[in-house]
Amino acid sequence: MNNKPVWEAVRPYVMILPAMGGIILFVIYPVIYLVKLSFYKYNLMNASKSKFIGLDNFKQIFSREDFFSALLNTVLYTVGVVVLTMILSLLIAVWLNRKSRFNAIVQAGIFTPHIISIVSIALVWMWLMEPSHGLLNFLLKAIGLPTSQWLQSSSTAMISVIIVSVWQSIGYYTLIIVAALQSIPPTIYEAAALDNASKFKVFYKITLPLISPQLFFILIIMTIGSFKVFDTVKIMTGGGPNNATTTLVYYIYEFRTNSIGYASATGVVLMAIIALLTFVYFRLLASKVHYQ
Amino acid sequence: MASIEFVHVTKSFDKHVVIKDLNLKIEDGKFTVLVGPSGCGKTTLMRMIAGLDPQTSGSVLIGGKDVSRVAPGQRGVAMVFQNYAIYPTMSVRENIEFGLKNNKVPKEERTRLVESISATVGLQDYLDRKPATLSGGQRQRVALARAMVKKPSVFLMDEPLSNLDAKLRVQMRVELIEMHKKLGTTFVYVTHDQVEAMSMADTIVLMNQGQIQQEAPPETIYHLPSNLFAAQFIGVPPMNVGDLGEDGVKFGFRPENAVLSAEPGDNHFSVRGIIVTREMLGSETIYQVRSARHSFMVKCTEDLFTVDQEVCLGVKPDKMFFFGADGKRIERDDARFDGYMKALRGLSHE
Amino acid sequence: MRYISELRPVERTLGFVLKAVVLAVFVFPFLWMVSTSLQTFQETLAFPPTWIPAAPQWINFAEAMSAGPFLTYARNSVTVTLSVIALQLIVMIPAAYAFAKYKFAGKKALFAMVLLAFMIPGQVTFIPVYLMLADWGIIDTLLPQIIPFMSSAFGIFLLRQYFMQIPQEIIESARLDNASEFAIIRKIMIPMSMPALATIALFSFVSHWNDYFWPLVMTDSAGVRPLTMGIAVLRETEGISNWHIIMAGNVVLVVPILLVYAIASKHIVKAFVYSGIK
What we know:
B: alpha+beta; Rossmann fold; CATH 2.40.50.140; 2 domains; six-stranded mixed beta sheet; five-stranded antiparallel beta sheet; C: mainly alpha; globular
């Protein structure tokens, strides 16, 4: 009976131990290990022959053109995806906001690509974008527009990848915005109607400010998500043509076996970027709480 | 069956002391009601008996045995919560059985107990229903059955009637009194409603700010409140209180002990005033009378006056109370009592 | 305050047509995938395109499946996905209960660590995790696709939230009924949180069934690879222009998810909205 309080004091820690163990082992420790690796010239065959080289990997990163090209591609991709997804999902959400059976079906349809593997999405779109037999070029021709090389030209590959990503994620963000829109109490709109406000003014002065916390939030998770883009690029273009679609994670992936130290250092840089974005996210979150 | 004893009990939450050095004995087999305003510590006291929030220091005894280190489930107590705390995913039968199963009661015994208890509370037709399909009153009965079936030596109830509508509440009050008579177990009942306390209790423990103000049967607490707080907490409307203007002493009388008349009577305490409000409640009428210095509530069995009418308010000397500057009631055989009585006479002529 | 009469019939019809077009943009590619998977090679090259194949070519599926050890891939996908869900639930339930219902020193900091872990993506940690698992000598097994996901930060967060909403009195009542903490979790908390657990399990199912990056960087041999990888390499093994075969393989990958979505679309939608809103 006497050791009961002891057990009660220890019990919470025992219960969270597996969860915390998993997090420490597979997230926290690897991050530390990653930082350590970034200071080494790592030998995969014989780890004991690895050499500490200080900041050399980082010096190399910031003096290599291909890194900056990958960074630029990632930024381009991110800006493209974020801007397009944001505008389109906001439009569609406002459009489909009213509760009706058909709107629900359309929402479910738009959302479907989000739960399908990126592998399938990429393959279907490669087939659609196939330059000589693909459906997209057929449709363009049918309505008298010039066709495109889509993924196979370095000038259109990036925008093609962006289109596919936007297509896949619009449904998800539409859902979140619709949820936000529907949480606005209808009495506010009734009050605005009594005040004789125009539709545009209601949207601009009432709806938008009220859902701005969610929009900020979406903006940030979209940005972080876009910065880690890999799967689409790997399957659809393999970083090409001419490295036109090589993004940061793809860049790291390519170095992962031959230059582990260098790949790790690039990973650290990616982590720093994501941390910065996360920091911004938390700052915004704080203002969101304040806002409400 | 068991008595409950608090010995020098202190309870604090995060360094905030809620109950300090409290001593109390709750008698075996009695229906004891802990009553007081919200935050007075009555629920804290009950939860210490249950062992849900054990005391910070001191000891709690059940049946003379120190249970400070005994887990809630092994103290032989049962508790009925305000929101009933019924397990929503279990049927009525499973709800009632849960404690028995945990105590490894054999199946036949369990079935027999569940059947007999559910018959007692009138739930025999609902045993296989889910709680969500039951009415508020029926859920209340599930909670009671679940407590009764364990044959606890102490029965704890935390505002069990406050979620019921007014009519059902009155009915359940009677049922709880009968249940207590039948079981003969120690009942501890927490409420903020003094009507519940007065109507059900063998003993009322009146609390305020973590301290016991008075511990007595309902009659005593009503007729001989030990202090100003008890006088004003018990009774609807509460006791009228006014400044005597001497030593910081206050006088007081109950609303039903004042007599209203159109002409001055020969009462010991008598003031003139105007009727400000009138509440007609059926069998009685409550007037608010404003005099030069005070405002009094008066409860009459007859409805003889109207608002704005000038009246005389009189109180007989044996219905008067005095409270010292410390709030304590001044006994009738206290040396100062007659002096204050005289001073009161002086006030009358205003 | 919106009146039906505000919209004239013309506008309503136009709106309906426009919505149907938008719906088509998102649904048609999947129908096209199915159609292609049943076409002959000649039909895929035809101009104008073949919308509906003359005779469904079921043989395409057989051919796609013979291009690699697809039975193994499918078994791996199922094993990995179900193991991840089971492991996550076992790890998450006690943790969520402790975070929701117990007071203990360091709770806030530890919970912040869970949320922090949520922010660090596998794309950052995969190199060190691979080296670590290689050290353990388990790279050629399914374990690298399972155990790194044992702690689902999203699941712990959501379940804790759900547990916190369960009234404390119900737990206290159970304690007075002499139930052990284990019994409280098993007989009260779990039955009461079934909706949340279903949501979490479905979210895990979708994420891990679809995962491509992690198996790609964690596996060195075909024997431990999942369907996603098998389908992705179809393009290389089948040649670049055999789209009917590639689409057939693709259908095999998509159908299980679509089935689950059809059965539990509400839960899945909720899961994703939660995972976003937190």
